């Protein structure tokens, strides 16, 4: 299986392994790495299965099916409302939400914010996207999504404004960060019910004309919601949220580069180096196709109490993550590592991911990309995928 990073069209599996081993240092970029003394530490846990996977022959018919889009399995769009649109009643006030997490969490939060504005008959202020502590991305809603399209698609469902009127201009992120404010709702439970918002947020709107909800990730339940609220969530996600043109263009360029990477070649006669785009590196069913994996090698692995068999250096890295990032909230488990794994509480290791890909039918001619932030732990386990 050919492994690439999202960088200049990809690098080879062994080159990636060398690069990672060279720069790895737990929670830092020190010049010396304790990992170098433990290159032989991790061992394959499932070597027999790997050998079996390498020997397994996949039929052309199965390979063809592997790359085919999934059938809809009876699923149908859930965005068309059966309720005829009419003029909206007078707004009960303004709703602000401050969304943290990654883009996927923020997208879910936007869907929930629209639903809550509908439930409370409130006017939604374009959501504020917090700066993610990992990516340090300062992009605003307007930088990512087409605001005009968002407002237009939802114009018959809720009222949306870009900015608060002057009389509420004081209601900012900085205002709520500096002190306890009566207009801020910060105790919304995870997956709160419709009634919770009616009982706890609507009175704030009645008293002050505005309510700012923060934190807001996963703060609205999925179960026991009116059918029209569920339809509205789907409408936001699949119709209202559209990327701005330059984001769409960038995404199309990235996919094209992943399908047909740029490689460096050397002219056999002159020895001159040049770059070219690989178009037909693969024939048949896998032509122009790739697999992208997000293995969550970073702090999320440390959030579990599992051991990944990477030796002393890996254990030190995990311990530092658990102390500095998770602030001691990940304690020693009363279960052994084997018991945790049997209970399904441990993230899959790269070795297990390789086995999963093999079981699905991907062979070692598949172009595989790793999507990640900073690979810190599991580092030595890359040899298991390399082995595959």
Automatic annotation (TrEMBL):
GO cellular component, one term: membrane
GO molecular function: glycosyltransferase activity
Main location as per UniProt: membrane
Signal peptide: 1-30
Keywords tagged on the record: Carbohydrate metabolism, Fucose metabolism, Glycoprotein, Glycosyltransferase, Membrane, Signal, Transferase, Transmembrane, Transmembrane helix
Protein name: O-fucosyltransferase family protein
Biological processes, Gene Ontology terms: fucose metabolic process
Membrane topology: Single-pass membrane protein
Family the entry assigns: Belongs to the glycosyltransferase GT106 family.
Subcellular location as annotated: Membrane
Pathway of action: Glycan metabolism
């Amino acid at each position: 299986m050919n492994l690439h990073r999202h960088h200049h069209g990809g690098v080879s599996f062994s080159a990636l392994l060398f690069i990672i081993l060279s720069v790895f240092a737990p929670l830092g970029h020190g010049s010396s790495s304790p990992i170098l003394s433990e290159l032989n530490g991790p061992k394959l846990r499932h070597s027999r299965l790997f050998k079996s996977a390498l020997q397994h022959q996949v039929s052309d018919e199965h390979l063809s099916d592997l790359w085919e889009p999934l059938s809809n399995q009876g699923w149908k769009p859930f965005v068309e409302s059966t309720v005829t649109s009419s003029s909206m009643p007078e707004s009960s006030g303004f709703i602000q939400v401050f969304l943290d997490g990654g883009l996927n969490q923020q997208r879910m939060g936007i869907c929930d914010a629209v639903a809550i504005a509908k439930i409370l008959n409130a006017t939604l202020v374009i959501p504020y996207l917090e700066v993610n502590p990992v990516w340090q991305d300062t992009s605003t809603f307007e930088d990512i999504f087409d605001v005009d399209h968002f407002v237009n698609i939802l114009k018959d469902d809720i009222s949306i404004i870009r900015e608060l009127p002057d009389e509420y201009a004081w209601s900012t992120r900085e205002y709520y960060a500096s002190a306890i404010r009566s207009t801020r709702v910060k105790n919304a439970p995870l997956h709160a019910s419709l009634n919770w918002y009616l009982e706890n947020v609507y009175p704030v709107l009645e008293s002050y004309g505005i309510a700012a909800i923060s934190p807001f990730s996963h703060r609205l339940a999925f179960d026991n919601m009116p059918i029209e609220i569920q339809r509205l969530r789907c409408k936001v996600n699949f119709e209202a949220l559209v990327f701005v043109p330059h984001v769409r263009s960038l995404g199309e360029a990235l996919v094209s580069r992943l399908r047909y990477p740029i490689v460096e070649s050397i002219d056999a006669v002159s020895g001159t180096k040049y770059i070219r785009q690989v178009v037909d590196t693969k024939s048949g069913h896998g032509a122009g196709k790739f697999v992208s994996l997000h293995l969550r090698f970073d702090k999320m692995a440390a959030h579990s109490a599992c051991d990944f068999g990477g030796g002393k250096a890996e254990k030190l890295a995990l311990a530092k993550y658990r102390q500095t990032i998770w602030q001691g909230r990940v304690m020693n488990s009363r279960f052994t590592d084997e018991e945790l794994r049997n209970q399904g509480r441990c993230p899959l290791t790269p070795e297990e991911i390789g086995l999963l890909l093999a079981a699905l039918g991907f062979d070692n001619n598949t172009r595989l990309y790793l999507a990640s932030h900073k690979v810190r732990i599991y580092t030595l386990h890359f040899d298991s995928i390399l082995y595959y």
